[in-house]
Design brief:
The chain is about 25% helix and about 35% strand. The chain has about 220 residues and is an alpha+beta fold. Helix 1 packs antiparallel against helix 2. The longest helix is centred in the N-terminal third of the chain and has 37 residues.
Length: about 220
């Protein structure tokens, strides 16, 4: 099992194959050994009845068929899973925890406190330092951050986190994180979970996605 850390948390990964489990293989081999031993040690003067032998052969065939069926079902489930993963790729996921800026605007979905008459967007870099602080529309449900600082200077590529401060009559009502829509580059199964690969090499568990949409434009 491999443990990997990212800006969005730590997760474990493991791999499995569509081959019989160790338990299935052990049972299969044990059955063969028992049948062979029984045939080798039978009384020559009172050999096994043909009907008994046929029953055991049928049982042997049943075990073999069950093993093959398990392998086939495992392969089918794997193929279905890959198809499901493909549905994620190319979509835009709404997530909290920040986004990677590479020169293209980052689409945010602010949710100001009810009744706020003043809302400020606060942007922090990967070190937690505030690099941008600007007023936005209190009634706006979306905002496109252009990747510049408070003075309008372009910021370098990298990961940034977002939050908003809501005020009413100059008094702070709430400070809350802001979600961003981020393109999904890849999807994979890791440790029983569906992990999404985002721009900048970040990983996020699909269970943390709060919205999904097709790319805009």
């Amino acid at each position: 099992m491999e443990v990997t850390s990212s800006a969005y948390g730590t997760y474990s990964s493991s791999s499995s194959a569509s081959t019989p489990t160790a338990s299935e293989q052990t049972d299969y081999i044990t059955f063969l050994q028992m049948l062979t031993t029984q045939m080798q040690n039978q009384d020559p003067l009172n050999p096994m009845e043909a009907s008994d032998f046929a029953v055991q052969l049928a049982t042997f065939a049943g075990v073999e068929q069950a093993t093959y069926t398990n392998q086939l079902l495992g392969a089918m489930m794997s193929q279905t899973g890959l198809s499901d993963l493909g549905n994620w790729v190319g979509m835009e996921a709404r997530i909290y925890g920040g986004a990677y800026f590479d020169g293209s605007p980052v689409e945010l979905t602010p949710d100001p406190a009810l009744g706020a008459d003043e809302v400020t967007l606060i942007v922090r870099d990967s070190n937690g330092v505030i690099v941008d602080n600007r007023s936005i529309d209190p009634e706006g449900l979306s905002y496109s951050w252009d990747g510049t600082d408070s003075s309008g200077n372009p910021l370098p590529d990298g990961s940034y986190t977002f939050e908003i401060e809501s005020k009413l009559n100059g008094e702070t009502l709430d400070t809350s994180p802001v979600a961003a829509y981020v393109e999904i580059m890849e999807a994979r199964y890791e440790g029983g979970a569906t992990m999404l690969v985002l721009p900048g090499g970040f990983y996020v568990d699909s269970s943390s996605v709060t919205g999904l949409r097709r790319p805009v434009g």
